[in-house]
Write a structure and sequence with these properties.
By secondary structure, the chain is of the alpha/beta class. The chain has helices at about 40-50, 75-90, 100-110, 125-135, 160-175, 195-205, 225-230, 245-255, 270-285; strands at about 20-25, 55-60, 95, 115, 140, 185, 215-220, 260-265. It has one domain: Dihydropteroate synthase-like (TIM Barrel), CATH 3.20.20. The chain has an eight-stranded parallel beta sheet with strand order 6-5-4-3-2-1-8-7. Helix 2 packs parallel to helix 3 and helix 8 runs parallel beside helix 9 (about 270-285). The longest helix is centred in the middle third of the chain and has 18 residues, at about 160-175. The protein is globular, with a radius of gyration of 17 Å.
Length: about 290
């Protein structure tokens, strides 16, 4: 898959895989829940992510870990809007991670320049119309249902073509609702309604996404498939989430080498270096 620099509206055209830093302003995210609930501390952390090499800071106020329950709209708004506004005022390129149209609209008004919806517009019937009106890039992830029951939905005969086809149909749906097709970024949704073998198959076959002709965002950071790979050989205990960052950097290199537009990660420093190495190798191939 050749790198797809589509000139997404309002975004730079990077000569390498971009790095999206994760900023969860939630109490219950799987690896950093509760760390950045205070808006001031969250803004400081977002600025630190940018200083360490994040090209984009992705602000989310609702956990999407397996089993997670929805939070009230007012609570999600209160968590994310001050942080988005604070970072945008400091010149940070901010993405809003939300499944709600009202949150997306409020965040864009506060300065967000990307809407990242893990449901791909399926959780809120108004999302595609809201993004279409805003005219900002839209990350459309593969999603089969809410986090509370998504593990039960990981049933595939051939995961790669099925996931690509499902995202292709959802791409058509959001375009029909007003999203500019040239502003869509697709995401295979590692860990969302996927078994561990499914995650590895998708990571190994990013070339398959060229069929959709859209930039690809990959989100491997600290996910369970890495924890299982690195499990203690004696006890079978999974590697703790915060000890999966080296493996995350390795997956980022693999994604970048396959032409991913961006990778979404918690710890950006090593990944920012790694994607530059991958870009240098690509430039020097015979």
């Amino acid at each position: 898959m050749e790198r797809q620099n589509h000139g997404l509206r309002g975004l730079p055209v990077w000569d390498r895989c971009a790095v999206m830093g994760i900023l969860n302003v939630t109490p219950d995210s799987f690896s950093d829940g509760g760390s950045w609930l205070d808006p001031g501390r969250a803004v400081e952390h977002g600025l630190a992510l940018a200083a360490r090499g994040a090209d984009i800071v992705d602000v989310g106020g609702e956990s999407t870990r397996p089993g997670a329950r929805r939070v009230p709209l007012a609570e999600e708004l209160a968590r994310v809007v001050p942080v988005v506004r604070g970072l945008a005022r400091q010149g940070v390129l901010v993405s809003i991670d939300t499944m709600r149209a009202e949150v997306a609209e409020a965040a864009v008004d506060a300065g967000a320049r990307i809407v990242n919806d893990v449901s791909g517009g399926r959780a809120d019937a108004g999302m595609a119309k809201a993004v279409g009106r805003a005219g900002v890039p839209f990350v459309l992830m593969h999603w089969r249902g809410p986090s509370a029951g998504m593990d039960e939905l990981a049933r595939y005969r051939d995961v790669v073509p099925e996931v690509v086809a499902e995202v292709g149909r959802q791409l058509e749906a959001v375009v029909a609702d007003g999203v500019d097709p040239d502003q869509v970024i697709v995401d295979p949704g590692l860990g969302f309604a996927k078994s561990r073998p499914d995650d590895w198959a998708l990571l190994a076959a990013l070339d398959a996404w060229s069929a959709l002709g859209r930039p690809v965002l990959v989100g491997p950071s600290r996910k369970r498939f890495l924890g299982e790979l690195l499990a203690d050989p004696a006890t079978g205990e999974l590697r703790p989430a915060r000890q999966r960052d080296d493996a995350t950097a390795a997956t980022a290199v693999l994604a970048a080498a396959q032409g991913a537009w961006a990778v979404r990660v918690h710890e950006v420093g090593a990944v920012a270096d790694a994607v530059r190495v991958a870009a240098a190798v690509r430039r020097n191939r015979n």
